[in-house]
Amino acid sequence: MNEPRRRSNSAERHEAIDISDFVYAATGARVRRLTMPDGAHWFPAVDVCKELGYTTTRKALTDHVPEDHRESLETVTGSHCLSVPAGREWRRDLQLIDLQGLIILVQACTKPACAPFKQWAAEVIETVQRDGSYTLDEAEVQPAEPGAPIAYAMPEQVAEAIVRLEAHNLQLDEELANGQRESITLQREMLATQKSTLAVQQAMVRAMERIADRLDALVLERRTPCSHLTVLPTTESVLADWRQRLSVTEDVWTVAVVIAPVLVEEGELREPLEAIAARTGLSVRRVNECLRLLHKHACIRSRGGAKDGAPVYVLNES
């Protein structure tokens, strides 16, 4: 993802839903993005068409996207007095589409993976027709700093689409782990036949055995149901239980790894969202969304708020 210049504060305040998550829920992939100084987002049409299954980018744009929602890279950057990004993939004649153009391509796509996003878009249109407007729900916990913009909760359909898409990545990770485990086993057996020749080879065999045993233990922890946990949970068992409850995204897992030890060792989490954001490198709004998903899937439960306004969470013991 490339951004020629930081967006203005006004653009950030008006972006209620994180644009990366929004595009990921629509296309099923983290496509490249250019964000202009005025806050407008542009995407390489070839990236979007590839992920949505269009065979020819030119035909997809001609058939579905109006001209005012597509433009060449040189024209878009030149309108803001910016240079074309370096790299062979960023050609001057590269066709870009704006956010409306991307949504139009998604709506025209027939892939089943696009269905949840299209259903949400249909719900937005229906709500506007019926009520005259569509409003996002405010997040359960708001940023505490003065003058901070209101945090909005991601629409459930968009959040669930992200979770389902990340499940595919988790499956690939598991397959990779299995391959690595088999490779380690083969190397261990090969080294075991030669351990009588050199002391160095013997040390390598023992190291590979420890790695393989640790990988086996991690796999077992992932597959152990919550009902088999001991009375006193550990950080590892809590994280394994959470992986069973939901298919976590990379951001959710980053937050989970930070808060799990605190919940196990101290019995509750009282850190302000800003503190968690500083430890994870995520935005306050994204940390809030991650905690909301963990709460929704019964990984944690709320116990009100601390005197300083920070939310208080404890482990869900059900």
UniProtKB/TrEMBL annotation:
Residues covered by the Bro-N domain: 16-132
PROSITE patterns, per the entry: BRO_N
Organism domain of life: Bacteria
GO molecular function, one term: DNA binding
Keywords, comma-separated and alphabetical: DNA-binding
PANTHER family tied to this protein: BRO FAMILY PROTEIN, DNA-BINDING PROTEIN-RELATED-RELATED
UniProt name for this protein: DNA-binding protein
